[in-house]
Amino acid sequence: MRKVIITIPARRGSKRLKNKNFLLIAGKPMWQYSVEAALSSKVTDHVYFLSDDAAACAAAIELGAKSILLPLEMAGDLTGVARASLYAIDLLQETENQMFDDLIVCQASSPLRSAEDINSAYKKFVTSGADTCVTVSEVDPHYFHWAGAENSETHKWGMYFGGEFLKKRQELPTITFPTGAVKISRLEFLREHGNFFTQNTVSYTVPSSRSLHIATKHDFHVAKNLIEHPLDSEKEKSDIISEKCGLEKSGSLDVDTFEGMKVLVVGTGSIGAKHVKNLVALGVHVSITDLIVDRAQSLAQEYKCNFVRSGEFEYTQFDSVFVCTPTHTHVKIAYSVVEAGVPVFIEKPVSVACDNNLLKLVKLSEEKKSLIMVGCNMRFHPAILKMKELLDNSSFGKVYSASAQFGHYLPQWRTCDYRETYSALAAQGGGIILECIHEFDYLLWFFGSVKSVYAISATVSDLEIDCEDIAEVILEFDSGVIVNVHMDYLQLRKRRGLEIIGSNITAVWESQSKNPEQVYFSLYSNNSENGVEEVDVEACEDMYLEEAKYFLKKVKEFSRLEYKEDIAIYNSISHAKNVLQLLEAIKESATTENKVLINNG
């Protein structure tokens, strides 16, 4: 029986997509998917992870693989997987007297390849008697049919292959391209020729859904999306990959389109105007209403929307309603919308207090099985989603504590006269505690219910406001996690961030400034080079747009009677009520200067 070795080379120093083999997908470094597929293939017990990163080598051993630490000269841009693999095989022969007949290379940058792909490719290699075998995937031959190039002398564009591929589709051959996911060779042949592509090479075809090779940021985000949000069928996966690889789609995906939907936006302040802009961009038929008629009419004219006066419409005329009025009016308007049986989006916070009116709204929504979403756009921030991903995948191990912060100088934050905004007026829901509802929303989303709270708040500045401008809060969660939160209206440089400390890793996110936002995200562990790994988390261009798309998608599902609550991200009114109750406990603690216990019964 032939003796087989599988290698997974994964150097750290890639340039086009920095450290691509080590980028996290669903809480795992990319290379780990290839190691797990190789171990699951059962082709051989000799699975070796090859890397210039000592911590990654140690982690691979914990997974059940063996590992070899590559010297720097075996981890360069031009080394190649064949040379690195042969180096490892020679080292094993020299130090352990290990001898192998066949080599299987699983490149770390192909995380979608399966164990069955490895098994089937090796089986074909053995039965064919070929020198090498490579995985391939189909590409639409019409891309060769229409391939063109500009003549360097005449600068005219023309068909590159001439008439060779100018045939009917039925007459064109099946065209494939090598994916690099699996490469197999007889060792004696590879030593002599140095590559996997010869006159005696066979191919094993894998579907495009498992063929993606990560070379660019775009590739990474496609693979990340497929792994973290699996689609329902291989066909749908193939369609996404096909678009990148030049394949013709097998059928149209159920891409969300919102054209033709009718939405009423109530309230045309800064947040209402933002929603109007985004809804129009999504193709929605938007109507606007506001008691400040001039402002509403001006916004309607700017975005070519329909202005309707209060009392001149029925909520049932619309597919959904966005409530973007001052906080103290939210519940009254939302109650009428729910009574009419229309889905409603309520801007945060849902109310200024967890009073009887809010409890009645919650009860009515439960009775009518209404679709209500309370807006908290920070849930759509890439850094928040990254933290949730790490928590869901237990990457932290045991979570010990966390620290959240937000600070922004109020006159810079509110571009109009800040003294006239609700942020400065306690009666309208102002004050830094209620303004920082985002922090408490995602903390409850992350860690569950709170057991107790202790808070200090004060007005320490000369700002012309009648509410607190700084607060410090300590939260004790039922899970045992301790969290401190700092918030203020005072920092001249906008800052927002979160640090979570666990037994395995510590994750730190910090965002600074605004337009553009500068986002920093780092992971600290014993398995990272120098103990720290910088994670590629981009600033979100428009969280409000993503939030609106998400809600409208739910409205469409709801209208088809297929609606199911997505607790992973959906901000229900019950959750919003719990957040508001927490904020009231924080204010009580700050007022009484006592620790407040929270009854979650």
Which short descriptors sum up this protein?
601 residues; alpha/beta; Spore Coat Polysaccharide Biosynthesis Protein SpsA, Chain A; Rossmann fold; Dihydrodipicolinate Reductase, domain 2; 18 helices; 26 strands; 23% strand; globular
Strand proportion, as a percent range, falls in 15-25%
Indicate how many domains the architecture comprises: 3
Q: What is the structural class? A: alpha/beta
Please compute the radius of gyration using only Cα atoms: 29 Å
Name the poorly predicted regions: 232-238, 240-255, 561-569
Q: Could you say what the CATH architecture of the largest domain is?
A: Alpha-Beta Complex
Report the CATH topology name of the largest domain: Spore Coat Polysaccharide Biosynthesis Protein SpsA, Chain A
Main sheet makeup: 9 strands, mixed
CATH structural class of the largest domain: Alpha Beta
Shape: globular
Helix content bin:
25-40%
Oligomeric state of the chains present here: single chain
Textual characterization of the structure:
The protein is α/β, with parallel strands linked by helices and 601 residues long. It has 3 domains: 242 residues, Spore Coat Polysaccharide Biosynthesis Protein SpsA, Chain A, CATH 3.90.550; 112 residues, Rossmann fold (3-Layer(aba) Sandwich); 188 residues, Dihydrodipicolinate Reductase, domain 2 (2-Layer Sandwich), CATH 3.30.360.10. Helix content is 33%, strand content 23%. The strands form 5 sheets. A 9-stranded mixed β-sheet has the order 25-24-23-22-18-21-20-19-26. The chain has a 7-stranded mixed β-sheet with strand order 5-4-1-6-10-7-11, with helices on both faces. A 6-stranded parallel β-sheet has the order 14-13-12-15-16-17, with helices on both faces. Helix 1 crosses helix 4, helix 9 crosses helix 17 and helix 16 crosses helix 18. The longest helix has 20 residues. About 5% of the residues have low confidence.
